[in-house]
Structure formats: structure tokens, C-alpha cells
Amino acid sequence: MGWYQWSVWGFCGFGYLIDRLWAQAFGLALGLLQQEFGVGSGQAGNTSVSFSVGLTAGAFVWGMLADIIGGRWAYIFTVLISSSFGLGLGASASYTTFLALTAFVGFGVGGNIPIDITIMLEFILQADAHTSWG
């Protein structure tokens, strides 16, 4: 593995870390969201549902788009979508707006997760048949 492979590994690993942190952030902020928007416990689960719907749609759409426009552009667009809608979460005036933005964050993250792994696996060197791992 050379410098380029380590850079790709770090770049994609950092993207994957950020994706996992989004999932944790919604769980950690749930109590504060209930307090801020006056949402009851029965409606608080809608945040997870909204994020999961976005994840599902993102994985489906970005999987096909990555084949059409290429993994590099798909990766850039998924990061752009998840980060810009994630910044918009801070300006949410209502819980409905928050749920809509959460779905769009999930849409970006849902595409980013498989694209991260695919890019990393394409550019990390494969073991040679004569290489000893022993």
C-alpha cells in the first residue's frame, strides 16, 4: 500500500465515520428535540423513521446513480447533500421541517455508506497470489 491507497482509505474511512455519527447524533439529540419542539414520546420516534426512509431511498437511488455518473461524483454529491441539509437542521422552525430535513440527510448518508466502501475496495491493492500473509 502506497501513499495514495492510504489516502483513499483515510478519506473513505472518515466519510464512513461521519455517516455513523449522524445516526448516533439523532439518538443523542432526541430529548432536546422533544423539549425544543414540544413533541411527545409517541412522536419522537418519527425522527428515526424519517432518517431510515432517507437511508433506504438513498441507498437505492445512489447505487444506480453511481453506475451512471461514476463513484467519484456520486460520493461528492452524497457528501454535499448530507452536509447541506444537515446544516439546515439547525435552522428548523418546526418539527415537520426537522423531519423533512432529516429524511434528506438520510438520503445523502444512505448513498454515502455503500459508495465509501466501494471506492475504498476499488483502490486498495489486492493481495498478490505470491504474497505471504503469514
Automatic annotation (TrEMBL):
Residue span, Major facilitator superfamily (MFS) profile domain: 8-134
Plastid as UniProt keyword: no
Cellular component GO terms, alphabetical: membrane
GO molecular function: transmembrane transporter activity
Top-rank lineage group of the source organism: Eukaryota
Keywords: Membrane, Transmembrane, Transmembrane helix, Transport
Keyword Transport in record: yes
Annotated transmembrane regions: 47-66, 73-91, 97-115
InterPro entries membership: MFS (IPR011701), MFS_dom (IPR020846), MFS_trans_sf (IPR036259)
Topology within the bilayer: Multi-pass membrane protein
Localization (cell): Membrane
Protein name according to UniProt: Major facilitator superfamily (MFS) profile domain-containing protein
Taxonomic placement: Eukaryota, Fungi, Dikarya, Ascomycota, Pezizomycotina
